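Interim report to the steering committee. The following record documents the input for Transcriptional regulator (131 residues).
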Amino acid sequence: MKLIGEVLQSKRERLGMTLSELETRTHIQRETLIAIEKNQFDALQQPAYVAGFIRKYAQAVNIDSVQLLERHQDELPETNRFATKALRQLSTSTHLGTVPNRDRETKQVAMIIASFMAVSAVFWAVLALVL
């Protein structure tokens, strides 16, 4: 079985697409495209984005990115597998963290600011009348 980079590169070459054309189409830097084609995912500055880069590349060369990523899951960097697993656990979890209600604090701060502005306006009006 071909590696994910080989699959993508061979499809790009069969389409007659250059790396420059692919770079323009995907907005992925040429160095990143080369690293993907060589399966050097750990060499990328952002290995957490590998799946997204592969999706964009696959779409640009008309390959089903979902099937491609599923078939080659073992080739992807460990960070991506950990993130995927964590997201699955979060999406199936019935206990979600609660965010404290900050509306009361926000209202109090707004009231303090409004009061300060009102006092300042009255003070300014008094000074304008006196002078």
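The helical segments are 4-14, 19-26, 30-37, 50-60, 65-71, 78-92, 103-130. The committee is asked to note this result when reviewing the revised timeline.
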